Give the backbone structure.
Amino acid sequence: MARKSSGKLNFEFAPVDDGYFYYLNLNIALDKHNYNEELAGDYISDTMKLHQEMISVDAQIIFKGLLHENNLNHLSNQIDTTYNESEENKGMSVIMTELLKNVAKHACSKMNHDGKPGVSMLQKLDEGYAMFSGNFIEEEKEELVYRSLEAINNLSTAQFNVIIERKREENKSGKGMGLMRLRRISGHDIGYEMVKYVDDPHYFILKIELS
């Protein structure tokens, strides 16, 4: 492991209950000539702070990075394995996978990467879970997204079932029904927020609750 690292291995121990939590940081530089070992040494402190923030909000899983078909399938399988379809967690893996797909398909990327940049998080609540996704969005798509979410959230159960059935008959593949599926499985309104920036695309956050 040490041979693969671009610098020395960094590690820390933090007290947790009756024991300790072990943090290990290994850095692999893409450009070894411009690698800053002193700066990299701070990464483990950032990791420890993030972990404490995760504990404070009972976050179970956090992902930040590029989403594409290959790692999307890997993340979906990990969620299925960790949170199987027990009665308590019923629908969770489907919702998380749908959120990840939504980012991989619709997120805005300013770089020519193989994938779309996004964030997802699974949070434990007192009576269920909350699932979040975050990604940049193209300005011309904002109004359509707002109108779609508002329309879906305002549907009655009867209206919702009629539309779902009609969509199934018209579109056997189920494409374009991601938000509808999220609303139906969760049984709650879809939460959303747009964080606006001056020099960057706006940042779109989706929240789905399952209880």
